[in-house]
Amino acid sequence: MFWISLILVSLFLFLYWLWPKKNRLNQNRVLHSYNLSQSHTTEPISKMVESVVYFQAGESKLEHHQILKLKEWMSPYLNQNLDSVLLVGSADRSGNLAKNRKLVKERIQNIRQVLLSLGIDSQVLQSESLEPIFGRTAEERKLFRSVGIKLSISE
Fold it and tell me: Which domain of life is it from (predicted)?
């Protein structure tokens, strides 16, 4: 009987702790007030463009048609002012975890080499490696074996 009452009381306290408080909401509103009378800023507007390169399981090398496709996709943006190029690599979780982490880094490095060969400045290239992601189906795992390319272009 003691354990049941202890569980019920702790459950009540846990739910009370999770329940949103009205005071917290009012404090957040005050913190996020905006000054609408501020003058127009002169910061350049940047545009984001994204693409994804997919890899076969256990592979980190780009196939010839993938390199051509990447160069074709990048060609309109080469003459524009690139603020940053972010490479986000991921892998599926099937197989050895250490090998998957290494594959992510190799995939990013291969994409980086192609972009450098196109004349993109190495100063604007940034990379981020995600931890291998669990996919329930073969299609999900295929989508996770990829490197996302995000271009930030100032206009």
Answer: Bacteria
Q: What CATH number is given to the structural domain containing 106? A: 3.30.1330.60
d(CA 77, CA 65): 20
Give the residue among 154, 71, 155, 64 at the shortest CA–CA distance from 120. Answer: 71
CA distance 132 to 100: 7
In the chain, how many domains are there? 1
**pTM to 2 decimal places:** 0.68
**CA 135-105-93 angle, 5° bins:** 20
What is the pLDDT at residue 22? 61
Is 71 among the domain residues? Answer: yes
What pLDDT, on the 0 to 100 scale, is given for residue 140? 87
Instruction: Domain of residue 150: give its range.
Output: 46-154
Residue 16 has pLDDT above 80, yes or no: no
Burial 120-155 (b: 16+ CB within 10 A, else e): beeeebebebeebeebeeeeebeebbbbbbbbbbee
Residue 120 lies in a domain: yes
Determine contact, residues 124/84, Cβ cutoff 8 Å: yes
pLDDT of residue 32 exceeding 60: no
